[in-house]
Amino acid sequence: MASGKSVSDKGKGVSNETVLKVSKEVVVKFIEVGRLSPANFSETFIEVHRVVREAAGVDK
User: Helix/strand/coil (H, E, C) string of the chain?
Assistant: First the structure.
């Protein structure tokens, strides 16, 4: 779609920017609460981003 949004089953669009922001916030929160080391940010971010994209229904 031209606007960079994908339509989910409920008709609401989720932008790629929103998916990135949510993914980053999840990983940062894991670091803040001590569940993740900052050294593992990149590999963990990739997995979290994939899961958030799937949950939001955003196509690649």
Answer: CCCCEEECCCCCEEEHHHHHHHHHHHHHHHHHCCCCCHHHHHHHHHHHHHHHHHHHCCCC
